From TrEMBL:
Protein name: Helix-turn-helix domain-containing protein
Domain of life per record: Bacteria
Positions of region (Disordered): 1-29
Domain HTH cro/C1-type positions: 26-80
A family per Pfam: HTH_3
């Protein structure tokens, strides 16, 4: 899925049920944290109206703002973007994630598990540094 900018949505693309569902998840996480749209917008560093547009599905999140929401709302980014639906997860892959897949696919199948173990170890070290 190409993540559009937060400031515009293509006028030729209608709001989909996935857009609405993503917006409901943002609203759900925001209200669980007892934040208003204006408070969340302030925490992200954006205008208050933008949060409302995210929540109605009129504007799609950028990866950068999804990462900010993940930290502020304390929910997984994958859940925000896809609701953890496997098909939706594939659609929500960023360019970087696509590149990771391309790298892994270039490794011989019999060596992929060893490579994955190294990646997991590196990811664990990085997450412990946070």
């Amino acid at each position: 899925m190409v993540l559009m900018t937060d400031t515009a949505r293509s006028h030729s693309r209608p709001i989909t049920e996935q857009d609405r569902a993503r917006g409901r998840r943002i609203a759900q996480a925001r209200t669980k944290k007892e934040l208003t749209q204006a408070q969340l917008a302030d925490m992200v560093g954006l205008s208050g109206g933008l949060v409302g547009q995210w929540e109605t599905g009129k504007v799609t999140l950028t990866a950068k703002n999804a990462a900010k929401l993940e930290k502020i709302l304390e929910v997984p980014m994958a859940w925000l973007l896809t609701g953890d639906d496997p098909h939706e997860k594939r659609l929500a892959q960023t360019q970087t994630e696509q590149e990771y897949l391309d790298v892994i696919r270039d490794i011989p199948v019999d060596q992929q598990e060893a490579f994955l173990s190294m990646v997991r170890a590196a990811a664990s070290m990085i997450s412990k540094q946070k």
